[in-house]
Protein 1
Amino acid sequence: MARIDLDLAHSYLHEPQTDEDYALLPLKFTFEDGGAYALLGPSGCGKTTLLNCISGLLHPSQGTIVFDGADVTRATPQDRNIAQVFQFPVIYDTMTVGENLAFPLRNRGVPEAQVRERVGRVAEMLDLSGALERRASGLAADAKQKISLGRGLVRQDVSAILFDEPLTVIDPQLKWQLRRKLKEIHHEFRLTLIYVTHDQTEALTFADQVVVMSRGKAVQVGPADALFERPAHTFVGHFIGSPGMNFLPAIWRDGAIEIAGRRYLPALSPSVGQALQAAGSFRVGVRPEYLHLADDGDAQAVPVRVERAQDIGTYWLVTASVQEAGAQVGTLRARLGAAAAALRPGDTAWMSVFNRHTCYYVNEELVP
Ligand SMILES: Nc1ncnc2c1ncn2[C@@H]1O[C@H](COP(=O)(O)OP(=O)(O)OP(=O)(O)O)[C@@H](O)[C@H]1O
Ligand SMILES: [Mg+2]
């Protein structure tokens, strides 16, 4: 296993001019030895490009990639000793399941006794033990993808295992099981795992560290709770959570925060107060989970017009608009308890916005 240091940028164009020409903007990052990472972001943000730079399928147009102190920027995937599992299964139809799993080991001349032991182990983890003698050609797509995963996991000597959306072809129930399996496997073998997905649940349940990407940039790296509690960028606030974080436009006036014409004096650390004062205008971020109904006129609450209250089963999802002089200046989505059942579209309600979870954003960046 390896520690991987990246300091690179990549453009698919010969002569990139603007930031838009880069699939990956200059990025400096270290994947620690034995860590479980997810690369999370919307389609086209550069996840596969980054993964392929790490594996060596792609050479970055600028910068370096270092494995355990050795520069591998120009090295091939074979030299880097990486196992990669792709979105669609890559297996040999003419071989049996067992032969498929053994292939990466036999290919490297691993002694047969060791091959058997390893294949047995991996097959057991993936519930493939009963299918080892079967020919791979007749199997369903999800079984084939399990074999692909197994082939990625079977070698013990790899620097890292890279997964590019490997569970796309797998049905939801099995997906959940496999994700848990991968996590167990990671705990047992302490492999460096890098897992690409655009599904936040997948990323947050699988990885210790999630790299959130947006348009060629890593906008935040952190464990699930940090991404939830303290999104470093409004993009992360939007992208993580369901629904995402709410943002209300605010200004600093005469020593107070003003939202839609009302003044608020929430508890702020001196440094946050100074930053907001300096910025003048900013956004207040609060997650749907941390909004609650307040009494009319409550000092920490914003008056809203209820647009919709939906019973989601375990909670109510209330959508409300924030108005100033008859114009809508913002929207709040709140996860509320049974009290929300009484809300009707058009009602005025007060939602408490300021609490210890409230975040402040200047130019889309979190005020630390
Ligand atoms: N071979 C290529 N040639 C030119 N441009 C490419 C190539 N591959 C990707 N791109 C562009 O680079 C950017 C990043 O693409 P990439 O495939 O890395 O995104 P992704 O995050 O993996 O997306 P997805 O979730 O759809 O797989 C996109 O704008 C894409 O159009
Ligand atoms: Mg991709």
Protein 2
Amino acid sequence: MNPAIANLRFISQTGQEIETLIPGLALLRIGVFKDYPYLYEGDLAYEQNYLKIYSSCSQAFVFSVFDGDRMVGATTAIPLAQETAEVQKPFVDAGYEVSRIFYFGESLLLPQYRGLGIGHRFFDEREAHAASFGSYTHTSFCSVDRGPSHPAKPADYRPNNVFWLKRQYTEMPHLQCTMSWLDIGEKQATEKQMIFWIRGL
Ligand SMILES: CC(C)(COP(=O)(O)OP(=O)(O)OC[C@H]1O[C@@H](n2cnc3c(N)ncnc32)[C@H](O)[C@@H]1OP(=O)(O)O)[C@@H](O)C(=O)NCCC(=O)NCCS
């Protein structure tokens, strides 16, 4: 085992147990999502409120990574039926049975912990959690579409698409929604186009 990984602790939590993770999760989201393609100007109060969606759902799942007492990574999942109307809508419109889909939220790792296989573990753990109920047929997540030539795109930017294809997810251009947030350096929140990816369980 990679010595860097051997020193980390991995914790799975569901439903109400997730409440204690919220402050760490909020900080991690703000820290990781400030980078392209998210460019998210985080708001701690908003984050703490938003993340209650997980602690208030008994089937919600958070798999987190700790280095000592510090949360350095985490990934989330929740039944699509418990997600917001804007996330459910494209599936409803396309004729999917929402109650059969488990939705994956964020995957977050501080940069120094990337490239060690933890991203694969994030998928393994969430897919196993979704399968454990025996009632879900698909897992899905969405990705922000910043277009081919956004000015903030770093020259060495490595998209996650290759990774997601390797995990047998298919990009579904007809399944899209918009989400609104404040980009770093902007004064007003703007809508972003989100594209869903899906895989059979
Ligand atoms: C997405 C993320 C969680 C992946 O975590 P990770 O632990 O680095 O991923 P892994 O080490 O398991 O690698 C997964 C795949 O990514 C690719 N990859 C990882 N590091 C890479 C690198 N330095 N160069 C090229 N490809 C790389 C590989 O395809 C790898 O698969 P392989 O090992 O089968 O070849 C992490 O990169 C991250 O936090 N990114 C920022 C936030 C984000 O974009 N989240 C996803 C959407 S919410």
Protein 3
Amino acid sequence: MPEMLSGAGNKGLAAIGLDVGGTKVLGTAVAWTAEVICTEKTTLPPSQPIIEVMANLASGLASRAFRNLHLPPSPVPCVGLGIPGTLDRDGNLTFSANLKGMVGVDIRSRLRESLSTKALSGLPALFSSDVPIVVENDANCALIAEALVGAARGRKDVILLTLGTGIGGAMMLGGKLLHGAHGYAGEFGHMVVMPDGFQCKCGRKGCFEHYVSGTANRRVSHEDMAKWMALGLANLILAFDPEIIVVGGGFGAGMGEKLLGPVRKLLPGLLREYSETQVPRLVAANLGEDAGAVGAAINAIQHIAPQWDY
Ligand SMILES: [Zn+2]
């Protein structure tokens, strides 16, 4: 357990966070103050094992972080991973559309092994052989980051939607992430909003993400997309009663107020129970593509230091 668990006055390195995607890995080094020390992105070369890419990125980030902080290298307290897929209660990947090769692999042991070989000669190892590695779904990581240091800072009842090619989602209620019994909580993209609608690769027809997303953008007008989004959000709001909804993802960021503005106008009409001040705020994510990596790091810090305050 690290000596200093409070962020106050401690600018030292607390965690390395990695957001692992189908084609790239984003990494970040986060201080005990929750500040980002440095970030780095790497594309996944088809030939190199992904675990090795992750270990190289993590050790590179750790060395850079110590240099930036003008501190001598020392073992990194913890590592957080954000993975696109479904995780069981022990953090093992049970399903992933983008990382099929990682399903069933003991990611933490393999990464720990690879990290332990990254010691620089003559210097103390950057990662101990039992460095805590905490794995979480990538959308959940983005939500953690936005709720702690981003657009929903300080909020406890938050829904996050990432609009990319499809829709990713995550929920926090009373400050706790919702995983569900099987890790499927937050799969908003595959809620059916249109019976017998567009065929989805998941096997259903009329999934939400075929009406609101980068894919939908090719066949749904922006006006209709706002209507579909308002409808989907109203259903989520009635089910979970959040105080704020954060919209991120590449497509979401590109659309910005062009999409959020009209949806904001439509929501009150779909939420008759809600007074004007009760209708949840709808805001754009503000950590951009780093949200997943930052959230992965923060999630790891929270695991090793549950009383952590920054
Ligand atoms: Zn679907």
Protein 4
Amino acid sequence: MTLELRGARVLVTGASSGLGRAMAAALACDHEAHVLALARRQDALEDLAAAADAWPGAIEPVVLDVTDTPARQAWLQEVGPLSAAILNAGMTLTGPFSKQSATKREQMIALNVTATTAMAQELAPLLSAGRGALMLVASLGGLTPLPYQAAYGASKAYLVSLGLALQQEWKRQGVSVTTFAPGGIATEMTSGAEFASQQRHLQPADDVAAAALKALSERQGLVVPGMQNKLMAAALKILPPSLAAAIVERQFRKDMTADRA
Ligand SMILES: NC(=O)c1ccc[n+]([C@@H]2O[C@H](COP(=O)([O-])OP(=O)(O)OC[C@H]3O[C@@H](n4cnc5c(N)ncnc54)[C@H](OP(=O)(O)O)[C@@H]3O)[C@@H](O)[C@H]2O)c1
């Protein structure tokens, strides 16, 4: 049974920019959904809510840092049943692993892994009330070792594994779990010089958002949007991971190791 997005109550984390903003906007504008749009930046969420005045659905801003466990749990106690939740908030960390900031790496793992895992568990009762749907936003980079985004890639590989496991555990309760694994998207995350050579391969956030919402409503499992990315994902099923890692290392070495000090 597909998930009806029209009139649905949907949580989108990381809704202040990039893919999350595009998904929240498409839900409210094209699908008449009531979106709980969550992020830390209040001004960006209020801009989105103001734009939604002209849309058939609604945007309800939720200003929250999902890594703040007491604040997150207090909010989730009050939120009530949801048709769907899209756990999209994430960050990356680029460059040679040995030079990366340990503090930023811990923040990334706290967000991409710890908070996302905790929220999946905390959301389960809110979703199961109405045979809801959960989406974890992983990455194509979670399907291969990812030199120069090594810990990021590992965090997304974790989400791929978590999502595929929960898909099986929750299917008997009627709750679908979609693991969404996009390739490069043109967002704040990829706007820096380290992604310079990738720019022409980046997909528009609106296109990726449309693919994500289709996958969510069709209750698909692991989904890679875009033909080029699908071909890459198919190749990654055949290539030994060490060879895939060597190819990625060569592709990213120049941009990711440039000294920009
Ligand atoms: N861009 C790509 O090429 C790409 C490719 C594959 C997968 N992805 C994944 O897609 C997702 C969205 O990425 P994006 O490219 O759209 O990045 P983005 O434009 O940087 O957006 C990240 C979002 O996460 C929110 N966020 C960050 N920390 C948060 C926290 N502690 N609590 C709540 N919200 C937080 C940010 O909002 P605030 O700063 O306002 O909190 C922002 O709305 C991520 O999971 C990313 O890993 C991206």
